[in-house]
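Fold description:
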Amino acid sequence: MTDFKEKVAMALGQFTEGIELDELKKLIEIPPNSEMGDFAFPCFRLAKTMRKAPNLIAEEIASKASGLDGFEKIENKGGYVNFFLDKQAVMKASLEEVIEKGSSFGGSDIGAGKKVIVEYSSPNIAKPFHIGHIRSTVIGNSIYKIYDFLGYDTIRINHLGDYGTQFGKMIVAYRKWGKKEDVEANPIKTLLGLYVKFHEEADKDPSLEDEARATFKSLEDGAEEEQKLWQWFRDESLKEFGRVYDMLGIDFDSYAGESFYSDKMDAITDMMGEKKLLKESQGAEIVDLSEYNMSPAIIRKKDGSTLYITRDLAAVKYRKDTYDFDKCIYVVASQQNLHFQQLFKIVDLMGFDWFEKCVHIPFGLVSMEDGTMSTRQGKVVFLEDVLNRAVEKTAEIIKEKNVAQDNIDEVAKQVGIGAVVFQELSNNRIKDYVFSWDKVLNFEGETGPYVQYTHARACSVIRNAKTDITTDVDYSYITSGSAYELAKLISRFPQAVLDAAAKYEPSIVTRHIIDIAQGFNKFYHDEHILVENEAEKKAKLLLVEAARQTLRNGLGLLGMQAPEKM
């Protein structure tokens, strides 16, 4: 894609001194409305070095730059120099690239030869895959897709929560109150019921907690019966999780959970011992991090059992040894900020300089309208139920509107699930939010269904045109206000993808394709596209196709489908 901002920076460079091209690019802004140009340069930064008022500097630059090739006009307003690009040149460069690159438009090869691990989703086995898990799942999946789109060799890891004291609790509960046939008939809901019952009974009889800890220690030590029960719980859970991942269209390269590292923890603790990082504290082994304003990290409990951080240390060392990653991304809730600060600091203290390549991507939490979710209390909303209800609601809407549709079930699935995913990715990931059925199933306004419908509308225009798309067109037919604004939004899509990767923020892509959808619909309403003038029709269809392709690519980066009919 032609870098129009760089073109402006190079023009400015002819009339400014002491500022490098990269710094000029950073200073250049996109004006709030097109009447102020395509780009604007604030001259306040130059006032001190040029010893002039910003408005006088702007006037001088605009005067000297006037008539430069590639610009319709350059003018000053206050302390700004406003640049108006040659519309036909922008149109030609932008639309030709979309057609040439097709499904890869917006991507690049900047990640070639670099390996990135993205750890996301990571539910606990034998527990519900609930609405709270959707955040890590879809944010992580989108980050994976964005990095993959930019040419990185990207590995998807589902670090299952399949170890720890909770499994001691589950095994104890199953032995006391469980039935095999109930687990086989409805694994997760049955196991959740047992987990809830354990905590209810443990409130009355605290000795159950000790029994659970002892049972988990037996599991860690390889006791045959505990191992069999644990493996059964894991297998049944993965069957249930698989249904949800299939609905979301999500795959993983590895399901290596915490248990995978059980035989690798002695090596990592031995290494910490050799580095003299371990200290004894009330019978437990810890790493004292008080020097770094952090609480101590417990590596082994008094009974010798391991903790989450022990397994994470073994995991990150294994990943570095196995994949030699350039970046290891953890998409985990902000509640775990301290955990990852401790983890990365210990890796640093162990002498591994690659600790800087480990990144925690936090996100806000989901709560229910009537309070916080709690697995222990059984207060959860199953994610599978949310997705199924969204699909059912979408099918009802399609039928109510009497849309001629021969594939209602397929479109309802694409749009319903897309609505849930899009809502998750439409706001800044760090924000907490309250789960509401009404919001999830509201398809009006700036929503996933709106963007999908816009894509389908563009497909319909192209189908009805019965004309081949070509870049050999007269671009003067698509220089009107709405056409030009749409083309500019399309041209900025690759930068939006780069920004989303740099900030680990899928909502940047979400926001941008909403803007493109709105820009397309304005163009659609302002212009008659399928006109009799063949040259005009071809030019407008080229813009329609560029918008369609860009929306499809953007939806794909969010993990959504792009229906061709709605």
